[in-house]
Design brief:
Layout: E1 3-12, E2 22-27, E3 32-39, H1 44-66, H2 79-101, E4 109-110, E5 112-118, E6 121-127, E7 131-136, E8 139-142, H3 149-155, H4 161-166, E9 186-191, E10 197-201, H5 203-206, H6 211-220, H7 224-237, E11 244-253, H8 256-264
Antiparallel strand pairs: 1-11, 2-3, 3-4, 3-5, 5-6, 6-9, 7-8, 7-10, 10-11
Helix pairs in contact: 1-2, 6-7
Length: about 270
């Protein structure tokens, strides 16, 4: 384990909406970052996204501390990747039950996209149309797959990506947390390299800032905090019609002191 990751995140309501229904979480001790974009009437979207990020973190931490092996374990992925996915499924159940408990919360839901960095590898879990990008060697790659009607049509060759970006149906999700009792969670893992950057965002960002522009911003701002601020500023300059949330993480080599600390043994988190 020769690498470490430093995260920074920020959120903004945008220029049109009064409420911010996005939520995000950065836990440096766990090397965990999460973004969620809530939906629903009244304050339901905000409640759903907060439940998603908080419960996913809490349940993952519980399982990590006990080395609990979740049900429906997928042997293609590491234990902690399975734990993170299972934690998100528990969050889904709570959001679903909260939506049933009160009429004003009926139909509440949220996207959820989370990354976890351990053993020089990034674990990714994903539901909805928030995104994870990898910025490597000055090129931006989308790692997650949007669970939306228009992107399903793009993948089937029915419409182009450019047509999808202008479609009136682009806000229709095919999968979201809390809309049903159980949810399928996408899982993946990628090896990271020194100087890689990980970029998470809600659709309020990528619908206002094209990928080429986002790459230029990441290229021109080496500091992760400055990158977040510039990305949000650009989305607002371009209209800011939706809530905007961004998390950027940068991969660096561990110092000698940090490597020695690893050798002595893991600190109980």
């Amino acid at each position: 384990m020769s690498l470490k990751i430093n995260f920074s995140g920020a959120t903004d309501p945008g220029k049109v909406r009064k409420n911010n229904e996005d939520s995000f979480l950065v836990d440096e001790r766990l090397n965990l970052a999460i973004v969620a974009d809530g939906m629903g009437g009244h304050n339901s979207g905000e409640i759903a996204s907060q439940i998603a990020v908080n419960v996913t973190r809490e349940k993952f931490l519980d399982m990590a501390n006990t080395e609990h092996k979740p049900a429906n374990y997928n042997g293609k992925f590491q234990l902690h990747t399975n734990q993170l996915a299972f934690a998100s499924q528990m969050a889904n159940t709570i959001i679903y039950e909260t939506g049933l408990a009160k009429s004003e919360n009926k139909g509440m839901g949220t996207t959820l996209t989370a990354v976890l960095f351990q053993n020089d590898k990034l674990s990714i879990i994903h539901v909805g149309d928030s995104r994870v990008y990898l910025f490597r060697e000055n090129t931006l790659y989308q790692i997650s797959q949007d669970h939306s009607l228009v992107m399903d049509q793009v993948r089937r060759g029915i419409i182009t990506k450019e047509q999808a970006e202008k479609s009136p149906l682009q806000n229709i999700l095919t999968r979201a947390m809390g809309t049903q009792k159980t949810i399928e969670v996408d899982m993946s893992e990628i090896e990271l390299k020194e100087n890689d950057r990980i970029f998470l965002c809600t659709d309020g960002l990528f619908k206002c800032v094209k990928e080429d522009s986002a790459a230029d911003i990441l290229r021109g701002n080496k500091d992760v905090r400055a990158s977040c601020e510039k990305l949000i500023e650009t989305a607002n300059i371009n209209g800011g019609p939706d809530n905007i949330t961004v998390v950027v993480g940068e991969v660096k080599k561990k110092t000698f002191k940090e490597k020695m600390k690893d050798m002595v043994g893991k600190i109980n988190i």
